[in-house]
Specification:
With about 190 residues, the protein is mostly helical. It has 6 helices and no strands.
Length: about 190
């Protein structure tokens, strides 16, 4: 009967350990699966966000709220949670977004959200205005480059025109003078 009691104690201990560890293993697996889903959905989320920002000219926070409301998936749900923090608890947008980025446990999401917050804060204006300003500056730089290239082409064209036009002009201007000098030197009449 001593063996049965010892076996029962070991069995109860094993069941207790299993009962303690099994939920942790299950939760860890579900968390890892959710992280994978978030990571896989990140490119689509980022494309939707960029499309919403550039297509409608909205500020980052407004565009992100619309994408979170319209989208379906774990990352959309996490961003919707950020807006619940903002609406219900008064979190600032940047703080809520960074908090949600960290809570996903996905480094790429944390990096993206940090970059977006940094860009919006650094610019002192909306991300759209920053992107439009950069686009305008790039367009102006391109225009100046094209004008400079056009100016160089005009100069090259002028030089080429002078190089090809000068000999006939010189011939037409100097030929009569040369003939006249030759005639005078040789003593022959001009006509």
């Amino acid at each position: 009967s001593g063996v049965d009691v010892g076996f029962a104690v070991v069995l109860v201990g094993a069941v207790a350990l299993l009962g303690y560890r099994l939920p942790l293993i299950s939760v860890r697996r579900r968390a890892e699966a959710r992280k994978r889903e978030i990571y896989v959905s990140l490119p689509f989320f980022a494309a939707q966000l960029a499309n919403r920002i550039m297509g409608t000219g909205r500020r980052l926070s407004d565009a992100m709220r619309v994408v979170a409301e319209e989208g379906d998936g774990p990352l959309h749900q996490e961003v919707a949670h950020a807006f619940r923090l903002i609406d219900l608890q008064g979190y600032p947008f940047a703080q809520a977004l960074l908090h949600v980025g960290r809570s996903t446990g996905v480094q790429a999401v944390m990096d993206l959200f940090t970059l977006l917050v940094y860009a919006e804060n650094r610019a002192g204006m909306g991300l759209v205005a920053t992107l439009l300003g950069a686009s305008k500056e790039a367009s102006e730089n391109l225009r100046y480059s094209l004008e400079a290239a056009k100016g160089r082409a005009v100069i090259r064209g002028t030089v080429m025109a002078i190089a090809f036009e000068m000999p006939p002009i010189m011939m037409s201007a100097l030929l009569p003078v040369g003939i006249s000098l030759g005639v005078n030197l040789l003593g022959m009449p001009w006509f």
